[in-house]
Known about the structure:
- Helices cover 41% and strands 14% of the residues of chain A.
- The first copy, chain A, contains 13 helices and 12 strands.
- In chain A, the strands form 3 sheets. In chain A, strands 2-1-3-4-5-11 form a 6-stranded parallel beta sheet, with helices on both faces.
- The radius of gyration of chain A is 26 Å and the shape is elongated.
- The two termini of chain A are 50 Å apart.
- Chain A binds chain B through residues 1-3, 51-56, 58-59, 64, 73-77, 79-81, 83, 91, 96, 98-99, 115, 117-120, 142-145, 160, 230, 259, 263, 285-286, 288-291, and chain B through 1-4, 51-56, 58-59, 64, 73-77, 79-81, 83, 91, 96, 98-99, 115, 117-120, 142-145, 160, 230, 259, 263, 285-286, 288-291.
- Chain B binds a DNA duplex (16 and 16 nucleotides) through residues 6, 8-10, 18-22, 24-25, 28, 32-34, 37, 52-62.
Amino acid sequence: MTEKKEVTIYDIAKKLNLSASTVSRGLNGHSDIRKETIRKINLTAQAMGYQQNTFARNLRKNRSNTIGVILPRLDSNFQSSVIAGIESQVSKNGFNLIISQSRESMAKEKENIKTLFNSRIDGLLISLSSDTSNLDHLSTIFRKGIPVVFFDRIKDHPTCKCSKVIIDNVRAGFDATEHLIEQGCSRIVYVSDNRLCNVYSERLKGYMNALEQYKISYDPELIIEDKLNEESGKRTVSRLLKMKNLPDGIFAANDTSAVAIICQLKNEGIRVPEDIAVVGFNNVYISRVIEPSLTTIHYPGMEMGEIAAATLIELLTTEEPKITKTVVLDHKLIVRKSSLRKESLSAPHEDI
Amino acid sequence: MTEKKEVTIYDIAKKLNLSASTVSRGLNGHSDIRKETIRKINLTAQAMGYQQNTFARNLRKNRSNTIGVILPRLDSNFQSSVIAGIESQVSKNGFNLIISQSRESMAKEKENIKTLFNSRIDGLLISLSSDTSNLDHLSTIFRKGIPVVFFDRIKDHPTCKCSKVIIDNVRAGFDATEHLIEQGCSRIVYVSDNRLCNVYSERLKGYMNALEQYKISYDPELIIEDKLNEESGKRTVSRLLKMKNLPDGIFAANDTSAVAIICQLKNEGIRVPEDIAVVGFNNVYISRVIEPSLTTIHYPGMEMGEIAAATLIELLTTEEPKITKTVVLDHKLIVRKSSLRKESLSAPHEDI
DNA sequence: CTGAAAGCGCTAACAT
DNA sequence: ATGTTAGCGCTTTCAG
C-alpha cells in the first residue's frame, strides 16, 4: 500500500561488506567474481527484495533491451500467431517487447515508429501497412543504426540492407490461380489491396504467370483493387455484377475479403463454387467456418514470427559485421469446397 | 548508419547561453520561464534534433509514464477493439503502453505482471484470464501502490478497492436465456468456461434467473464447462448427443464457442435453429458470417477500453485522495437467425 | 525569472 | 577477485 524505498545494490553491498561494483558484477554473473560471492549476492538480493532499476541500467548502457514490433493489425488470427512466435523468442532471450499496430495506415505507422524510436528500442520487427509507399519514415531508425528485420510485408531500401522473412508470394499466387484454372475457370478475378505492397503485387505476378502458362488472355478489368476488409466485399461483388461477362473464378489476396465476397455472392443468389469458384489467402479460422468452406493458401505465422525475432536477436547479440539474410518459408494450397468443381481431381483436405 | 552522439539539454543550454535547468524547465513548459525563452528553447531543441532521454527522466522522477495492459487474447475482434479504445486515450494523454496477453492462463498472467512490474509501469489495466482463481499475483502491484483498473473480467480484492469497467453480465445472461425461452426453448444448455471468472458465473446467474422467472426447472446436466475455443465445440456437442433428452436451446458464453458448436451440430445433421436454437456472446465478425447467422449479445469494446484507460489516467494524474468507481456499460441482444423459430415475434436485425 | 549543484541507480574503466 | 571513481541525462531543491 505504501511506497517503500527501493532496495539498491548499495544496500546489498553494505549488508555484505562489499562494494557496489562487485554486487553489480555478481548480479550479472560476471566471470571474474568468485562463485561463492555470486551465490551470496544473489541470495541476499532475493532476501532483501531487490529489483533491478532498468532506467538506471539503460541510462548507463544506453540500451533499452527492448524490441519493437509494428504490424498492420492485432485482431487477425494470422498476425497474432506471428506475435506469439515473436514473443516466445524474445522472452527466451531476455528482451522486452513493445507491440504496436499500424491499422494499414502509413501515417499511423509513422507515429508508431516515432513512439518506438523515443522508447529507444534496440531493434525493430516490422510488417508494413498496405499503403506504405516508401521507407522514409524509417530514416530515423536507419540513421541511428537500429537493426530492422522485415517480415511478410516488406520493402527494399535503396541503401540500407535488412534481413527479411517472407514467403514466395509469386509462387503462391501462381498456385492459387493454377488451381482455379484446373477447376475449369477461365475468367478469373484477382482482388487485392494496394499494389504498393509486395505481397499483393507479387501475388498478382503469380496470377499473371499462371494465365500466361495456361494461355489464358489477360483482362485488366478483372484486376480489382480495394481494401481487403469486411466492408469491401459488397463493393467488389457489385463491380463484378456490372461486367458483361460474369467471371467464373475469384482469387482474393486474403481470407477476410474472400469471406466477405462469398457472403455477398450468396446474397445475390450466385452459387459458390458452381457459378464462381473462390480462393483466399492466409488460412484463418473463419475460412473453415464459412459455407462453402474456403480454399486458401496456408503459411506458418508462428514460425515466421520466431524466425524474424531470432534473426533480429542474432543481429543484436553478436558482434559485427552484421550479415543480413532473407528467409523464404514454404506455403501450401489448402483445397476446400469454395473452389471444388471437379471433385475427382483433388479431394478437399483439412489437414491444417 | 552511424551512431552519433545524442543531443542533450546541455548542448541546447550551451548554444543559448542558458543553464541546463532552464532548458529542462523550458522544455517542460514550466510556468516561471519567460514565454520568449521557452520559444527559443523549443526552437533550438527542434533544430538540433533533440530527443528527450526517457531513461534519465524516469530514473530521476521514478516514474515510467507507461501504462501496462494485460488481457486474455489479442486475436479477438472484441479485445482488439478494447485495445484500440485504450490506445486512443493513452496516447492522447502522453502515456506509453505495454500490451501483453495471458492466453487465458493464470501462470502466464503472473509472468506478465512480473514483466510489467519490472518495467515499472505507473498503472495497470487488466482483464483477467478465465482460470485466474485469486489476485495473489497482483500483490507486488498493490503493495507498491500502483493503481489498477479492471475491465470486463474482474475480481474483487479483499482489501484493495479498484475501479472497474464492466457490463451487467447477470442481466445479459438473463436476456439471452429469456430470448431462447420466448422462442419456445425449454431445455436450454448453458456453455461457459471456468466459473471462477465473473463473466461466466454471472451469465449463469442470469440464465438461472430466467429459468426461475419462466418456471422452467433447472437441470444441472445442462450446465457445461469447457474451454470456449474452436476445439471445444466438438466435445460439447458430443456431450449433448449423449443426453437422453436432446436440448432445444444453447446459450454459449462467447461467440467463438457458439460458432464451433453450430458447425459441429451441422456436421451431425442437427438443424439450427429448428432442432436447437443457439445464442452466443460478444458479437464478433464471425457471428454474422456463419450460417445460420448467430444471435448474440453485443457490448461496446472500444468504449470499454476508452473508459478504463481514462479512469486509470485520472487516478494517475490527479492528487489524492484516490476515489474508485465502477462503470457499467449497456449491452444489447442482437437477434439473428440461429435462434429465430418464431419469425413473427421479432424480426432479425443487423443494426450493429 | 534563472543558475548551481546534487543525486536518481547503475556500470565500466582503471586501479589494486 | 574486488574496490574506487566517474558519469550516463535529467530534474529539482535552494539560492539568488
